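Pasting as-is:
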Amino acid sequence: QVQLVESGGGLVQTGGSLRLSCTASGRAFSRYPMGWFRQGPGMEREFLAAITRAEGHADYADSVKGRFTISRDDYKNTVTLQMNSLKPEDTAVYYCAAASFFLIGNALSRPASYAHWGQGTQVTVSS
Protein backbone atom coordinates (compact mmCIF):
# COMPACT_ATOMS: atom_id res chain seq x y z
CA GLN A 1 0.00 0.00 0.00
CA VAL A 2 1.35 3.39 -1.00
CA GLN A 3 1.73 5.87 1.83
CA LEU A 4 2.98 9.46 2.00
CA VAL A 5 3.64 11.02 5.39
CA GLU A 6 4.32 14.73 5.82
CA SER A 7 6.06 16.33 8.78
CA GLY A 8 7.48 19.68 9.77
CA GLY A 9 4.41 21.89 9.91
CA GLY A 10 3.68 24.22 12.78
CA LEU A 11 3.30 27.81 13.90
CA VAL A 12 5.79 30.45 12.78
CA GLN A 13 5.91 34.23 12.77
CA THR A 14 5.86 36.34 9.62
CA GLY A 15 9.26 36.24 7.96
CA GLY A 16 10.16 32.93 9.53
CA SER A 17 11.02 29.60 7.95
CA LEU A 18 9.77 26.03 8.04
CA ARG A 19 10.99 22.86 6.40
CA LEU A 20 8.41 20.28 5.38
CA SER A 21 9.36 16.69 4.67
CA CYS A 22 7.44 13.91 3.00
CA THR A 23 8.47 10.27 3.19
CA ALA A 24 7.02 7.79 0.71
CA SER A 25 6.64 4.09 1.33
CA GLY A 26 5.05 1.20 -0.45
CA ARG A 27 6.93 1.56 -3.68
CA ALA A 28 9.83 3.50 -5.09
CA PHE A 29 8.84 6.95 -6.33
CA SER A 30 12.14 7.86 -7.88
CA ARG A 31 10.88 7.48 -11.44
CA TYR A 32 8.07 10.03 -11.26
CA PRO A 33 7.45 13.62 -10.18
CA MET A 34 6.55 14.61 -6.66
CA GLY A 35 4.92 17.83 -5.62
CA TRP A 36 3.64 20.04 -2.85
CA PHE A 37 0.20 21.63 -2.71
CA ARG A 38 -1.71 23.55 -0.08
CA GLN A 39 -5.32 24.22 0.75
CA GLY A 40 -6.64 27.06 2.85
CA PRO A 41 -10.09 27.14 4.47
CA GLY A 42 -12.78 27.33 1.81
CA MET A 43 -10.21 27.36 -0.98
CA GLU A 44 -9.23 24.98 -3.75
CA ARG A 45 -6.05 22.98 -3.56
CA GLU A 46 -3.21 25.15 -4.82
CA PHE A 47 -0.05 24.02 -6.57
CA LEU A 48 3.20 25.15 -4.95
CA ALA A 49 6.10 23.19 -6.39
CA ALA A 50 6.98 19.98 -8.19
CA ILE A 51 10.18 18.17 -8.97
CA THR A 52 10.88 15.50 -11.55
CA ARG A 53 13.28 12.61 -11.20
CA ALA A 54 16.93 12.35 -12.11
CA GLU A 55 17.71 15.82 -13.39
CA GLY A 56 15.59 17.28 -10.62
CA HIS A 57 13.81 19.84 -12.76
CA ALA A 58 11.63 21.97 -10.50
CA ASP A 59 8.57 24.11 -11.18
CA TYR A 60 7.15 26.68 -8.79
CA ALA A 61 3.98 28.69 -8.48
CA ASP A 62 4.56 32.42 -8.87
CA SER A 63 3.28 32.96 -5.33
CA VAL A 64 6.19 31.05 -3.81
CA LYS A 65 8.96 31.44 -6.37
CA GLY A 66 12.11 32.74 -4.70
CA ARG A 67 10.82 31.85 -1.22
CA PHE A 68 10.22 28.09 -1.38
CA THR A 69 12.63 25.40 -2.56
CA ILE A 70 11.70 21.82 -3.37
CA SER A 71 14.23 19.00 -3.31
CA ARG A 72 14.18 15.21 -3.27
CA ASP A 73 16.30 12.31 -2.14
CA ASP A 74 15.40 9.28 -4.21
CA TYR A 75 17.48 6.93 -2.08
CA LYS A 76 15.40 7.83 0.95
CA ASN A 77 12.14 8.29 -0.98
CA THR A 78 11.72 11.75 0.48
CA VAL A 79 10.77 15.15 -0.88
CA THR A 80 11.35 18.36 1.07
CA LEU A 81 9.92 21.86 0.86
CA GLN A 82 12.05 24.59 2.41
CA MET A 83 9.87 27.62 3.06
CA ASN A 84 11.44 31.00 3.81
CA SER A 85 10.06 34.51 4.26
CA LEU A 86 6.69 33.12 5.28
CA LYS A 87 3.62 35.34 5.15
CA PRO A 88 0.22 35.08 6.87
CA GLU A 89 -1.32 34.19 3.49
CA ASP A 90 0.85 31.06 3.46
CA THR A 91 -1.33 29.66 6.24
CA ALA A 92 -2.90 26.42 5.00
CA VAL A 93 -2.77 22.65 5.16
CA TYR A 94 0.19 21.49 3.09
CA TYR A 95 0.06 18.24 1.12
CA CYS A 96 2.71 16.09 -0.46
CA ALA A 97 1.79 14.29 -3.68
CA ALA A 98 3.38 11.62 -5.86
CA ALA A 99 2.65 10.87 -9.49
CA SER A 100 2.38 7.41 -11.03
CA PHE A 101 3.58 8.38 -14.49
CA PHE A 102 5.75 10.96 -16.20
CA LEU A 103 4.48 14.52 -16.26
CA ILE A 104 5.57 17.48 -18.31
CA GLY A 105 4.58 21.12 -18.63
CA ASN A 106 1.33 22.26 -17.08
CA ALA A 107 0.48 18.74 -15.94
CA LEU A 108 2.96 19.16 -13.09
CA SER A 109 0.73 21.78 -11.48
CA ARG A 110 -2.59 19.94 -11.69
CA PRO A 111 -3.76 18.04 -8.58
CA ALA A 112 -5.48 15.47 -10.81
CA SER A 113 -2.06 14.48 -12.20
CA TYR A 114 -1.04 12.98 -8.86
CA ALA A 115 -2.29 9.57 -7.76
CA HIS A 116 -1.03 9.54 -4.19
CA TRP A 117 -1.44 12.10 -1.41
CA GLY A 118 -0.34 12.53 2.15
CA GLN A 119 -2.67 13.38 5.01
CA GLY A 120 -1.50 17.00 5.17
CA THR A 121 0.33 19.08 7.73
CA GLN A 122 -0.86 22.43 9.09
CA VAL A 123 1.25 25.53 8.59
CA THR A 124 0.18 28.67 10.41
CA VAL A 125 1.96 31.99 9.95
CA SER A 126 1.14 34.62 12.54
CA SER A 127 1.27 38.33 11.79
